Amino acid sequence: MALPAATVTHMHLCPKVTGNVPHIGGPIVNGSPNVLIGNLPAARIGDTLVCVGPPDKITQGSTGVFINGKGAARLGDGTAHGGKITEGNPTVLIGDSASVPVETTNFNSFKDTLAGALINTRSPGEALGKAGMIQAKKRLGLKTDPRYIDRYHGPDDMAQDNSGILTELESKGCNKNSTAIAKNNEGYKQCSKHKNKSRAKLMSRRKHKKIDEPSNRQGGPYTQDEIDLWKEVKASGGDKRHLSTHTNTDKGLVRVYERDDVGDITEMIDEFILEDFEKLKSAIEETFKNE
């Protein structure tokens, strides 16, 4: 069935409620950079809509009409919060609607994700959360800083983005769509400038004395490169990019959030189904069952 094409400024209705606050919905706020419909950017799968709290994302679109490689969005197509686009351009009709396809990967990629997910994780949920982070990094072009070492009390990853900006990541796995992150004893959130500054002070002032000392701690002995990385964080006052990845361990849905200096969400920057989710979940659960 052909439906009116959606563009920036077209509204959506959101049925979601956070506490006692209804989300209501709002307009589409980004679209194609080079395809205009009625002089407005055409909306596509993955584009953002205003909503109360975290922004919403378009998750349905045409399977026959693609704009910049993404399904064109139309009146009635769905969003990540369970809402629907309620407006469209009546003069441009686009047919055929389908949900976002679940991607599958090759065997080597599956093995890499599984192997990485099982490093330093202590439960199936934690491992699936880490798998979500691994695949999110690949999608976003993030590469682990070679100086980073995964410590029990540190961030889940420190990476460089495509612009060379240092980026902290925290990975979470939960059996529902949660955005929760932890706080330290000082009340600072994970993914916050203050928590990173506190960690940087600890590493650069105290741990440098233990460089290369034999240790059975997670990650092994402290290294000079590792301390230099944290000195860099300290010099910046903890100011860097902060991302959190949240994997729904029942459904395989992964959401990636950009966070501000205090650890609060500013926007959702990616949403996808974990590649080979059922296969990964089964392999991870089997591994922990046999331990």
From TrEMBL:
<protein>
    <submittedName>
        <fullName>PAAR domain-containing protein</fullName>
    </submittedName>
</protein>
<feature type="region of interest" description="Disordered">
    <location>
        <begin position="185"/>
        <end position="224"/>
    </location>
</feature>
<dbReference type="InterPro" id="IPR008727">
    <property type="entry name" value="PAAR_motif"/>
</dbReference>
<dbReference type="Pfam" id="PF05488">
    <property type="entry name" value="PAAR_motif"/>
</dbReference>
<feature type="compositionally biased region" description="Basic residues">
    <location>
        <begin position="191"/>
        <end position="209"/>
    </location>
</feature>
